[in-house]
Design brief:
Number of helices: 10
Mean pLDDT: 87
Bound molecules: adenosine-5'-triphosphate, magnesium ion
Structural class: alpha/beta
Distance between the termini: 25 Å
Radius of gyration: 18 Å
CATH superfamily of the largest domain: P-loop containing nucleotide triphosphate hydrolases
Shape: globular
Largest sheet: 6 strands, mixed
């Protein structure tokens, strides 16, 4: 928390009134390490603090290998923590395979850079979406199925801008942008409170990147979910994130309202990152 700048809540308030709500995700002193054969443990995340509130996008930027994905996987309970804690809706996030999530973690969803990591290439889109809907229905304690499920799938595909007719296809028969939109639809069907998106647009071409980034911003605003977006692309984070954390070698060197981080960076590493970006677009709040 020490790196949080003064005025953070005022700035995030102005970016959509998110300053007052209690956090959906609370990360405290999180440490992620890996065992390296014959060399002990490598610490990829060195104790970071982070909060995500409803209606808020938190962007995480930093160079390759600085620990962004390690943190993202810990956030959703794929990576085990070696220290600290991660709480989702007040409950500790327990590391379990993503396909065997306990009911309380169903509303905590992840979207990966490569949609094939979110989608099974051997199953039709519709089957995959039905499975998620079923899991969310079970988490709600609702037997469900049939018409309600079909309608929910039509609605979510429309929401993410994919023709609902494409539901009968296999993932390979879609464009990269469509696949990523379907990965987002899949996360949405779980009725998420928080989505962690690790490089969700990096694999897309420039025009798709812009449209999918706009879609993510709109979903957060409309559904008042929380979102963590990891991106190499500083311009994207500057455009859509309310707050930005700058990560280097497993640590957040600074974190604060996006506009402040971009216009008045406190850390030399942030200035260095910004110096590498030709022109940053201001966020349309
Ligand atoms: N399973 C693993 N076992 C050992 N080391 C790992 C493992 N996964 C990641 N690492 C190491 O941890 C560090 C952080 O990796 P991580 O994938 O979190 O980086 P990143 O910031 O997401 O990078 P990129 O931007 O390239 O995706 C790297 O040095 C990486 O080699
Ligand atoms: Mg990564």
């Amino acid at each position: 928390m020490s790196s949080r700048v003064e005025g953070a809540s005022a700035a995030s308030m102005s970016a959509g009134g998110v300053g007052q709500a209690s956090p959906l995700v609370e990360v405290s002193e999180a440490v992620v390490s890996y065992r390296i054969k014959g060399k002990g443990r490598f610490i990829a995340v060195h104790g970071v603090d982070l909060e995500v509130r409803p209606g808020e996008i938190v962007g995480i930027v930093g160079e390759s290998g600085c620990g962004k994905s390690s943190l993202a996987r810990a956030l959703v309970g794929i990576n085990k923590l070696s220290g600290g804690s991660i709480k989702f809706l007040g409950e500790e996030v327990t590391p379990l395979p993503i396909r065997r999530r306990p009911a309380h973690l169903v509303p905590l969803q992840m979207v990966f850079q490569d949609p094939y990591a979110s989608l099974n290439p051997r199953r039709r889109i519709e089957r995959q979406l039905e499975e998620v809907w079923n899991a969310a229905a079970r988490a709600r304690g609702d037997a469900g199925g049939g018409d309600a499920r079909r309608t929910a799938i039509t609605d979510v595909l429309e929401r993410v801008g994919v023709d609902p007719e494409l539901r009968s296809r296999y993932p390979h028969a879609l464009s990269g942008g469509q696949r990523q939109r379907i990965a987002i639809a899949k996360a949405l069907l779980a009725e998420p409170r928080v989505i962690v998106a690790d490089e969700p647009i990096s694999a897309l071409d420039a025009s798709s990147q812009k449209r999918v980034a706009e879609l993510l911003r709109r979903l957060v605003d409309e559904l008042q979910i929380g979102m963590v977006i990891i991106s190499h692309d500083l311009a994207v984070v500057a455009t859509i994130a309310d707050r930005t954390a700058v990560m280097r070698a497993g640590l957040f060197v600074e974190q604060g309202p996006t506009e402040r981080v971009w216009t008045a960076p406190e850390h030399s590493y942030t200035r260095q990152l910004l110096g590498a970006v030709p022109a940053l677009v201001g966020r349309d709040a």
